[in-house]
Amino acid sequence: MRTNVSSIETTVIGHAAEAAERRRSVRQYESTAILDSDLRELLRLAGRAPSAYNVQPWRFVVVQDAELKAQLSAAAYGQQQIVRAPATIVMYSDMESALERMPDSMHPDMPQEKRDAGVESFRAQFASQTVEERENWGNAQSNIALGYLLLLAESMGLATSPMLGFEPEKVKALLGLPAHVRIPALISIGYAAEEGFRPHRLPVETLVEFR
Ligand SMILES: Cc1cc2nc3c(=O)[nH]c(=O)nc-3n(C[C@H](O)[C@H](O)[C@H](O)COP(=O)(O)O)c2cc1C
After folding, report:
1. Is residue 147 lining ligand 1, measured as CB closer than 6 Å?
2. DSSP states along the chain
3. 200-211 tens-digit pLDDT
4. What domains, with CATH codes, occur in the chain?
5. For residue 12, what pLDDT band results from cuts at 50, 70 and 90?
6. Residue 160 Cα to ligand 1 middle (Å)
């Protein structure tokens, strides 16, 4: 049992292939807290995920407060990993915010004219869409960062439990998030106190064909 917080635990210990082999959902955690600086670094790296137009619509709320975690668990059909983990990350996707921030998202290596034109054409593409269409599109981008987050956490010695079993409207109300945002997942995170199920996947032959 670990007794204190240690950032040594979160040193990167492998590469993506190793993390993919090892990662599994974990729902029991030690009580050890995770350093805020480690969580911030994890989320910075998750944000290295690519997205169309470099739009980066993902946003994160890190919930560590015991009372708030209990309320979050209640909004997630009582899933206990939220209460057991030292932190649960509420990942949300906000295209309204992303559209506003497009000038910041454009690559600085591009000439200014091209950046301005890029922002214009990007905003024009979404102007004719409904809020729901826009948020669906953004949610697909945000799921790329979710995959990054799960693998990166594993490579930093942290266990996770991604969840879609929650009531989005309740989670939004609890955290004061705008109505239009989408929530790709809640992710409980901490130091593992169980192994989790042995990974079980369809054989690659079922998934892949070469032509
Ligand atoms: C987007 C997403 C949502 C999930 N939702 C839940 C959930 O609400 N509750 C839960 O216990 N597990 C949930 N899981 C965990 C999956 O059941 C698990 O990833 C899958 O069975 C594969 O097992 P593994 O993660 O241990 O490899 C979710 C996983 C993902 C990726």
Report:
1. no
2. ---S--GGGGS--S-HHHHHHH--B---B-SPPPPHHHHHHHHHHHTTS--GGG---EEEEEE--HHHHHHHHHTTTT-THHHHSSEEEEEEE-HHHHHHTHHHHS-TTS-HHHHHHHHHHHHHHHHTS-HHHHHHHHHHHHHHHHHHHHHHHHHTT-EEEEE--S-HHHHHHHHT--TT-EEEEEEEEE-BSS--PPP----HHHH----
3. 999 999 999 999
4. 10-207 (3.40.109.10)
5. low
6. 10
